[in-house]
Structure formats: structure tokens, C-alpha cells
Amino acid sequence: MTQKKGTVEKERVVCQNCRYHYSFLYDAKEPASDSHPTMSGNLTNYLNRRESFRACPHCGYYQDWMVQVQRRHRLVDLILLSLVGACGLLLYLVYQMIVVALSPVQTGGFEGVYQAQWILLGYVGLVAAAAGLYAVYLRWIWNPNREVDTQSYEAAVPQEIRAEDFVSAASQYEAATRTVAEVELPRRRLANPWETLSTPKKVLIGLGAFGGACSLVAPVLSPELALNLAQRGMTMLPFYVGVAFLLSATLCGSWQFIDQRLR
């Protein structure tokens, strides 16, 4: 069954490089009020801005506003993947702490816990450095228009595009669009990610949030538990367990929504 996302609209674009008029379809929040071709795009009307990354079919040029959106989404992709790794390391740290708490003598003390903590801190630092370098790469090195000829066309500002050109370019629209019929779907002004999740996923998120909250407040509600953990050197165990519950439930339960945004 096809998921109804909203209104199918047509983005009409004037290529910044060759002045070719082309268009493509995208899932919109509401019908576009202005149907004239532009050089800036109507990004606020997209349900998924990743759909805006469409090269000019005439010269292959990606518009500047498309490239900016693509840079931001590629960086978000890296951060989302990094969160999955962080969740795994956090669960490994919790496992080490529980093992030490159950059998501190046989496991060699807190060596495994300290090692897991350093691994987690190192991973966070590595991800931060990688994200910074990747942002620099996307901003200054990555260029999808590297192979595009940008020297053989005359430049023009949007104000110089005549209204008569809109009519003369009508035949170009259909040649550049996807061969999909424009179907008006039930409109939804605000996309609620919670509605896209199935009932089991909602329950999973709810249980994870409840378990995480209980773990975080357990030492406050039970001074005996807090004292016992302090005597064992496990003061941070409820915090790590709570964060692991919250992060795991969020990632697992909402992966359907995240996958839709990654497409």
C-alpha cells in the first residue's frame, strides 16, 4: 500500500548555468502558490528536501540551492550513522559495569569498565573530528559540478529572465520531468513522524523512554541503592543504563522514519 505523503507538486527551475528551463515532481506540503520558474527553489514546501537534488538535463549543473541542501543532508547522514555506533559502545559499557557489579573479583576489577569508558570517549572524539573534517570537505572540496561546463554559457540574473521565456519554454518542461502523473493526494500540512510508526514501534519507544527515565531517577528515589552503587564504585551505572535505554529505543523504534529521510 502506497503511503500518502501529501501533494505532488512540480518544481520549475531556471538553470543558473545554461538558463535551461526544466522541472521535476516532488512531494509537497501544500500546492505551490507560484508556478513560475525560479533560481532559488521552493524548499520550504518539500516534505523531503533530498528530492530537490536534480541536475539540469541540458548541461548537468546542480543549482547552488540544491548543493547547499545536499551538503547539510550528507553531514546529517554521518551523524545518524555515528549514533548507531555510539549506542553499541554505550551498551558495551553498561555490560562491563553490570559484569563487574555481579562478580568484581573474577572479572579483574574495573579494568574492563575503564577500558570501555576510554573507548567510548575516543569514539566520541573521533566522530567529532570526522564530522568537522567532513564538513570542511563538503564545503570546500566536494563539488558535484566539477565536470560541468560552466564557461560556455552566458550568465543572467533572475530579474533579466523575461516573462515571454516562460511560455516559450513550456515544451521543455515535459521533456525534463519524471514520467509520473501528477495526482492530488490528501494534503497534510504538518508531517508528524509519530504517525508514520507502527503500533509495536510506538510501544518500543514508550517502554524505552519509561525504562530510561526509571533508571535515571532510581538513585534519587532510593538512597540505599545510591549508597550501594557508590560503595561498589558504580555511581554512574544508572545514568549509562538510562541513556542506553533512551538512545536504543529511539534509534530502533524510529528507524522507519529515519530511513524515509535518508532516501
Relevant terms:
single chain, about 260 residues, mainly alpha, 3 domains, two-stranded antiparallel sheet, 8 helices
Architecture overview:
It is elongated, with a radius of gyration of 26 Å. The chain folds into 3 domains: 1-62 and 145-191, no CATH class; 66-143; 192-263. The chain has helices at 64-102, 111-140, 163-168, 170-176, 199-221, 223-231, 237-253, 255-262; strands at residues 7-14, 21-28. The model is unreliable at 1-5 and 173-191 (pLDDT under 50). It is mostly helical. The chain has a two-stranded antiparallel ribbon with strand order 1-2. The longest helix is centred in the N-terminal third of the chain and has 39 residues, at 64-102.
Silhouette = elongated
**Which regions have little confidence, pLDDT < 50, spanning 5+ residues?**
1-5, 173-191
Beta fraction of the residues? 5-15%
The total of helices stands at 8
- Strand and helix order: EEHHHHHHHH
Mean pLDDT: 74
Overall structural class, as computed from helix and strand content, comes to mainly alpha
Topology:
Elements: E1 7-14, E2 21-28, H1 64-102, H2 111-140, H3 163-168, H4 170-176, H5 199-221, H6 223-231, H7 237-253, H8 255-262
Antiparallel strand pairs: 1-2
Helix pairs in contact: 1-2, 1-7, 5-6, 5-7
